[in-house]
Design brief:
The protein is α+β, with helices and mostly antiparallel strands. The chain contains twelve helices and 18 strands. α1 crosses α4.
């Protein structure tokens, strides 16, 4: 699990530090670096597990638009640095830090570790047995692992998706939800208990429907069976219902990532459904040891979490992003006795929280 991140000279991060826990909610104004931070985590996961490589190819693979320049504005275009500290369960060398640095010309990145193991150690034997090939890649795989990033679109979730003929194939859904019917059908095929849990959760919220993913030609399609006997295509069901189903599916996927990155899960969803969505994602993280990082602009969502889960983002006068735990604000304990987390955010605002955070000893 990632415990802290340090970023230098990347996009809106000049000299940035943040601590992370198992479940993290990022808040802040528009253009305060929340999405850029999720991109940094995704890029670090891919580059670190590969042992280095071109950032441009990683971004292309995950459909991340890295608008030029990718360096901190006004910098001398020097190296970008991503430092990831984390804990690797099962290793004697548990806490460590991986440093990913890259030059400006080809955007090629190299990975190094702050600590190393002796050749005769048990960790070194584990690394050799894994077949990964290098200690840096092995530690990164164990401590950080695979990240998946989602910014779900109801339109893309509804679209038919090709049937996968290979029964051994492992299905993942695209960033915006492309491939969702096949992703859902894959859960049904491989883990019927999880599919029934998805179906149960969905019908509790939307009792007039049952879900199905039949084949239509070479595609899987999403269909809703209504109580009146009609079979409704996905286009006939609300955005909120489709999004709710997608979040339930993400929370029951058979092959979970190590890090789940989600943009604004409240979009298109009734605020009353947020409690079930947040609860499902949080429970999924605990049960499957998945670290969750999500962004939000919703005070209703914040009311469902504690200040210690919240990371406040803001830009300084020079435009550089800074972050702090909401729980580090000087009088947060007293405020929490009288207000919910979303109310504290609404009343205090990011700038006030930062002032109180800097003044706390």
């Amino acid at each position: 699990m990632i415990t802290s991140v340090h970023i230098e000279n990347f996009k809106c991060f000049k000299d940035f530090d943040i601590e992370l826990g198992p479940f993290n909610v990022l808040i802040g104004p528009n253009d305060s670096g929340k999405t850029a931070f999720l991109e940094a985590l995704l890029l670090a996961s891919e580059i670190g597990r590969a042992g280095g490589g071109p950032i441009s190819l990683v971004a292309k693979e995950h459909r991340i638009k890295l608008a030029e320049p990718i360096h901190w504005p006004g910098s001398n275009q020097g190296s970008i640095k991503l430092s990831i500290a984390g804990t690797a369960s099962g290793l004697d060398l548990d806490e460590c830090e991986a440093v990913i640095t890259g030059p400006t010309d080809r955007h090629l990145f190299a990975v190094s570790l702050s600590r190393h193991v002796k050749p005769e150690s048990e960790d070194h034997r584990r690394m050799q047995a894994s077949g990964v090939g290098s200690w840096e890649r092995f530690w990164f795989t164990k401590a950080v692992g695979k990240a998946r990033y989602y910014r779900l679109s109801p339109t893309d979730l509804r679209a038919p998706s090709p049937v996968i003929r290979n029964p051994e194939a492992r299905l993942t859904m695209g960033v915006s939800g492309v491939g969702f019917p096949t992703f859902l059908e894959d859960i049904l095929r491989r883990d019927r208990r999880s599919f029934f849990e998805i179906e149960k959760g969905f019908t509790e919220r939307f009792p007039n429907y049952e879900i199905d993913v039949p084949k239509s030609g070479n595609d899987n399609v999403l269909v809703f069976h209504a109580n009146d006997g009609q079979d409704l295509p996905a286009d006939s069901v609300s955005d909120g219902a489709v999004l709710y189903l997608a979040f339930l599916a993400l929370s029951h996927q058979p092959d979970p990532p190590s890090i789940l990155l989600i943009e604004e899960p409240e979009n298109g969803v009734h605020h009353a459904a947020l409690e079930q969505i947040v609860s499902a994602i949080r429970d999924f993280g605990k049960k499957r040891e998945v670290q969750v990082v999500l962004t939000t602009h919703s005070p209703y969502l914040l009311d469902l979490v504690e200040p210690e889960d919240v990371r406040v983002f803001s830009k300084g006068q020079d435009g550089a992003v800074q972050a702090m735990k909401m729980s580090d604000a000087a009088d947060i304990d007293e405020l929490s006795k009288h207000f919910m987390t979303g109310e504290i955010w609404t009343v205090e605002t990011e700038s006030k929280l930062f002032k109180k955070g800097r003044g706390k000893k």
